[in-house]
Amino acid sequence: MTMCKRTSKSSRYFDVMFCAGFGFGFCLCFMAITYYKLVTDKFQNSLVLLQSQTSSLSVANTAVFSPLSPSPISSGRLLCWVLTSPNTLWTRSKHIVKTWGRRCDTLLFLSSKPDLKFPGTVLALETEEGRENLYNKTINAFKILHDSYLDKADWFLKADDDTYVIVENLRLLLSRFSPNRPVYLGRRFRQHVHQGYMSGGAGYVLSREAVRLYAMAVYNGTCTLSTSPEDLELGTCLQKLGVPAGDSRDHQNRETFHPLWLGSLVSPEDLLPKWFHNYNYYTTKVGPDCCSKTSVSFHYCKPLQMYMLEYFLYRLSPVGGHSIKLHKTRGETTATETNKSNNQLTSFWGFDKGFIWNPL
Ligand SMILES: *[C@@H]1O[C@H](CO)[C@@H](O)[C@H](O)[C@H]1NC(C)=O
Ligand SMILES: *[C@@H]1O[C@H](CO)[C@@H](O)[C@H](O)[C@H]1NC(C)=O
Ligand SMILES: *[C@@H]1O[C@H](CO)[C@@H](O)[C@H](O)[C@H]1NC(C)=O
């Protein structure tokens, strides 16, 4: 405070005022810091409370467990690519941009024409439309993914423009596998391909290594274009390359990828088409056991149903919530399974403390 010991009379008044102002400002600053500390402490206490209590309908919950916040599950970067067409881009794909697509790290729409007005990234494949050209679309899509996105993602999910994906649950599934090893996951069908192949409508995921192998095989002519169903063709090629078809069921052997609309699956009466029983690699379960609590996808989802699912999954919550125990994982070990411990996961969410999931 040497500056206050000034001798000049004319500046004395000014110095006093300056010192007083400085002191006042200092006090104010101190008070502000103390108040801030109090408030943040209180906020942190309420966080701890949230995690240790079973259920809560409080508004604060929304902010804490927002499904849009970065995923706590270390599954790697997820690229979602939607196979669409100029006809359905604005009627179907648009709603993916507004719903589940936001939760992927990268979201791409692959169509036969570009569209600069679309509120998402549309990549043009320069292929013809129509069912018989589906596999050509897939082949060209994988060439683009390989050439431009291989180092930007660890997992590559393909979905149709009428597939709904619960991205958080997909990340949970993927956390059991390594993207550096070839693997491919989805709803496993057993016809035609010995190791099975993944249904196209339910969506399927390839690890980065599987994408690399597949694109190489397309480039070097090991796998060629065909007019048979695209999911079957892809499965045939991947088997040839030694990319294993993984088991995506949960620890209770319930399926997570669903090629049919939810309504027909959960019905206690068997309303399922006969082909479905014949195609499933694992025994088809009817009724509530049809589907895992950590289901990943539903096919044949109309735009309005996408918003319904968003509401059911992220807004609606029955009092008490649903109990989910993530630390139980499947007992099986595949060649591709990593030793990535789920402990990390369970402690983040507080499941190990008996926390009951309240998905909002
Ligand atoms: C497949 O797609 C490529 C380019 O994307 C195209 O040049 C080719 O003609 C297509 N093949 C068939 C059989 O449609
Ligand atoms: C083509 O690529 C695959 C891997 O993607 C490899 O297994 C195969 O040996 C290659 N074939 C030729 C002829 O280079
Ligand atoms: C997996 O991790 C556990 C502890 O984290 C360790 O004891 C075990 O040996 C590991 N298993 C393999 C196959 O590396």
Short description:
The protein has 360 residues and is α/β, with parallel strands linked by helices. 38% of the residues lie in helices and 11% in strands. Helix 4 packs across helix 6 and helix 4 packs across helix 7.
Care to describe what's here?
This protein is of the alpha/beta class and 360 residues long. Helix content is 38%, strand content 11%. The strands form three sheets. The chain has a six-stranded mixed beta sheet, sandwiched between helices. Strands 5-11-10 form a three-stranded mixed beta sheet, with no helix packed on it. Strand 1, helix 3 (89-98) and strand 2 (106-111) form a beta-alpha-beta unit. The radius of gyration is 27 Å and the shape is elongated. The termini are far apart. Residues 44-70 and 331-360 have low confidence and may be disordered. Bound molecules: 2-acetamido-2-deoxy-beta-D-glucopyranose (NAG) (3 copies). One 2-acetamido-2-deoxy-beta-D-glucopyranose binds next to loops.
